[in-house]
Structures are given as structure tokens and as C-alpha cells.
Amino acid sequence: MLKRSGWCHGVRYPNSPEDVIVFRCLCCPWPGVNLPHGWELTDPRLSRYLYAAYLGADGNHSLQKKAKKDDPTDRSFAGKRGFFGDIRELPKYKETVSKEQGKIVETCSGFKVTRSQKVGKFRFLDITGVVAVTCTRHGCFWPRAVVDLPGGEQFLLVDLALSGALECLKSLLEWLMTYDVGCSYLKNILVRWKEGKLPHHLEPIVKRLRVLLPQLHMLAHKDSCQTEFAVCYTSGAGHTNGEAVEPLWATHNQAGPSTREMNGGARHDALNDMFSFWNWVKHETMGELPPSRDQPRSDLVQVNISRANSRTSCDCSWTS
Ligand SMILES: [Zn+2]
Ligand SMILES: [Zn+2]
User: Pfam families under this entry (predicted)?
Assistant: First the structure.
């Protein structure tokens, strides 16, 4: 983990929390690392979308932790330098925990966030799962953007995960986040942010954050939400479907049966290692798969170049 993040080789990146020791997404826009000079001067109506952050939030109820006699002082070696945000930082942590047990958040159309499929599913658990804010373009975890759920998938805990992701992305100018209950989540977000004493300097970003619904989950919402929060009607969102957080869970659910038996610190260390490895393997392999398996990549490059040429010669008043 330390080697892959570059930490033990003395590599330090600009515009990112310096003490993070896990491997983060290198493909998302990152001033000082992968953006051209003068990117911030781009016309917002034309190509500013190239430099926007696309995030996806979702809860997972397979990465649990059982309630049993263990060492309460067992802490993760990574601490806040890994993928987990610290729920104990919330001012009313204990009250939040007791109040949240078994609570279900409902949305505009009765879609239940906790998805408490079976009565008693969450009995004998300290942690019922996690909520994460991920990069929805490349499917990578953000540092400090995974938060344990002591009960239901409460919005204050999603806020905490969001604050972790925004710490890495605060130097950008546009942010977009999909969440399967985005319409309800957006209500009172600034009130919760203040009550949760989350980083004050991120408030202007939260004010400008565009929260949308993922394309498939959107169908469980009212008609008005399907228009107002639709990715496909949002300027700059392109063909983003907003569901990229789901494949992450499909793989990591397999870790649930082993990590749910661990003590708190060991569980976090194991999951930190898995999430960091996931990000690493994503970067190793994402360039190998061409968009179409039937077409050699060199042909695709030619197609893209010819499309780009035809666009520049077009007279239409296309905007993002
Ligand atoms: Zn990314
Ligand atoms: Zn809705």
C-alpha cells in the first residue's frame, strides 16, 4: 500500500491531502498532476466538463462487523490516512449511533435505503455495512471516503464520506455526484453539514455540488425526479450512467464473511489493503480493454481523429 501510493519512495502530490498512504485514482482531473496549463480558464459552456469531478455514493450492507467481545482499543494502523473516515469525529457520535440503529431512510417514492430485506438481518452486528463515495468515471475508491454504518444508511454519514472525497477534489471547479436517493439527500445538506461540524472550507463546494440519480435507480423515483435529477438531461454529464459504484461492491462483498469476524482495527486494515489493491489493478488494466473488442485499437484512434476533425469543421452551435 505504501509502495503503490508512492509514500515510501518519497513521492508527494500537490492538491491532495499529504498524509494519505493509499493509492487513489490518477485518471480523475488533478491540478498539478494531469491537467493542462490554463485548464481553469476553459469556457464553462464548452469544455469545462472535462475537468469536473464525477462522484458516486452508495451504501453496502455486506461489509459488516459482528458484535462480539473484542479489543475496543484495536485501531487501524492507517488511521485517517487510509480509506476510512472517522465517525467518532461527528459531534454527537454516540447519540447518532443509538438513534440510527435499524432506522430506515425512505425516498420520494418509498424506495428504502437501508433495504432491510429481512427482519433481523442486522442483529448481532456492531457495523451493519459501509457507505462510500467513489469515482464514478473509473470506479475507484477515494481516500477517507468510506464510512462505517452503525445502523442505517444515514445522510450525515454520507456527508462525512463526501467530505473525505472533496478534500482530494477541492481544487477543481465543478463537482457532480450520483446517489440512488439523491433527491432526498439534497434536502438540508447544508444544515447537516453545519450540525455535523464537517470541514467549513468545503461548504462552498457543497453548495455548488450537483446531486443526481443513477440511471437505473432513477426508475424507482417519481416522474418529477426522473426529469429534475436525470444525468442525461444534465449539462456536461454526457453518457455517465452513475452506477459505477455497484461493480465495486460486487467484488468486495466477497470480503464480508471474513472481515466481519475481525476486530475493528484489523478489519479496517484488511479493507484498506483491498480497496487500495482494487484501485491499483484498475489502473494496471483499464488501458488494455479497447471500447470495442471487434475493432483493433489503432482503427479506433483513426475513427476518433476523423470524428474530431469533423466536429471542428462543423458550424452548429453545440455546447456541453
Ligand atoms: Zn477516477
Ligand atoms: Zn426522488
Answer: KDZ
